[in-house]
Design brief:
The protein is α+β, with helices and mostly antiparallel strands. It has two domains: 233 residues, P-loop containing nucleotide triphosphate hydrolases (Rossmann fold), CATH 3.40.50.300; 119 residues, Nucleic acid-binding proteins (OB fold (Dihydrolipoamide Acetyltransferase, E2P)). 26% of the residues lie in helices and 31% in strands. The strands form five sheets. The protein has a six-stranded mixed sheet with strand order 6-7-8-3-9-10, with helices on both faces. The chain has a five-stranded antiparallel sheet with strand order 13-12-11-14-20. A hairpin with a 2-residue loop joins strand 11 and strand 12. The two termini are 43 Å apart.
């Protein structure tokens, strides 16, 4: 089995610079050590701190029950804050002692259920929150939103006469027509079929950047987060695991939970000897600078591994999953551990085929072997 090949640290530094070219002017939203709890003995979110810059799309990513929607509701003023502070455009809007009402925050919201008024036509749904404006100004704003969201000609229809994607556009128009300081989106694509969701992501991403709308998007789908976000905040059991660009979240995860949640990842055990991490897949740089004979694990992604049929090789193909453009192979190593490799859909290997594994990782991510994922740590403390 060949020694893995790796790029130098310069590659990672260049990547870091390339994906952080987006530098908006100022912070629109800031959370400072925010905690919320439905049960005072068990916080739903704990000590959450982050900011969203002007014009930025920031995604809250994590599994169900991790606190994503609680954060969104706290930002909107729908959930009280037990500790910490929330600022909008530099103004304190939530703390343990005071809460600015939702209607005074200039926040637009689109939830999983679009909550359109069934008895109102599209134009009237969009204009619902504009009653303080003159009729001419309302008409002008509605026409602008119909044009921007591709709803021209549908203004006289009722919600039940629209497709799911069109209903979503109406909900977005109703939120954006009020020129909110901040737009909050809670799983906005969950009711759409995969093809429609993909198209809507592209359209919405372009629209939000064109309007320079600061947006907080909640999702459990890492592909959706990668497609939409300028930065991603990964949450786990009410705590913030990592806040970074999509590229760095994927290539340089800060924790084992992040590594596993944002894409297929295998963790190969290894030991530090003579300055290198020795594993069943070869030698890797000791990026943690762990002392000699330390036990560690190395993260390997399927796209890091290339398969080469070799009758004398000991690893064997255990399974193949066809994914259209690629095959995802499960490989059994001599130790019994399973790893995965993504190959072109034209590279078909039967179960049991002996294969040589060539690791071409462009980066090396190493975690201490003795440190379990944070979710396991918290589970132990709860028992």
């Amino acid at each position: 089995m060949n020694t893995p090949s790796h790029s130098t640290q310069v590659d990672i530094e260049q990547l870091d610079g390339q994906v952080n070219l987006y530098q908006p002017a100022s912070s629109i939203l800031e959370l400072r050590s925010v905690s919320c709890a439905y049960d005072l003995s068990r916080p739903a979110i704990h000590d959450i701190s982050f900011s969203a810059r002007e014009g930025e799309i920031l995604c809250l990513l994590g599994p169900s029950g991790c606190g994503k929607t609680t954060i969104l509701r706290a930002i909107a003023g729908l959930e009280p804050v037990q500790a910490g502070q929330i600022f909008l455009s530099g103004r304190l809007v939530s703390s343990s002692s005071e809460t600015l009402p939702t209607e005074a925050r200039r926040v637009g919201m689109v939830f999983q259920e679009y909550a359109l008024f069934p008895h109102l036509r599209v134009a009237d749904n969009i204009a619902f929150g504009l009653r303080h404006l003159s009729r001419a100004e309302r008409r002008c704003r509605v026409q602008d939103m119909l044009r921007l969201t591709g709803l021209e000609g549908l203004d006289r229809r009722y919600p039940h006469e629209l497709s799911g994607g069109q209903q979503q556009r109406v909900a977005l128009s109703r939120a954006l027509v009020q020129h909110p300081v901040l737009l909050l989106l809670d799983e906005p694509f969950s009711n759409l079929d995969p093809d429609m969701a993909g198209r809507m992501r592209q359209e919405l991403h372009a629209l939000l950047h064109r309007m320079k709308t600061t947006t907080i998007l909640v999702t459990h789908d890492h592909d959706e987060a990668f497609a939409m976000a300028d930065r991603i905040a990964v949450l786990n059991q009410g705590m913030l695991e990592q806040l970074d660009s999509p590229e760095l979240i994927y290539h340089l995860p800060a924790t084992r939970f992040v590594a596993d949640f944002v894409g297929q990842a295998d963790f190969i055990t290894g030991q530090v000897r003579q300055g290198l991490v020795h594993t069943e897949l070869g030698e890797f740089p000791n990026t943690l600078n762990r002392p000699e004979e330390s036990e560690v694990v190395v993260m390997i992604r399927p796209d890091d591994i290339q398969l080469v049929p070799n009758k004398s090789a000991k690893p064997r193909v255990a399974a193949r999953l066809f994914r259209g453009s690629e095959n995802l192979y499960t490989i059994r190593l001599p130790s019994g551990q399973m790893v995965h490799s993504s190959e072109s859909s034209t590279n078909v290997y039967e179960e049991g085929t002996a294969v040589e594994l060539r690791v071409s990782a462009t980066h090396t991510v190493v975690f201490p072997a003795e440190q379990p994922p944070r979710s396991q740590q918290r589970d132990k403390s709860d028992t």
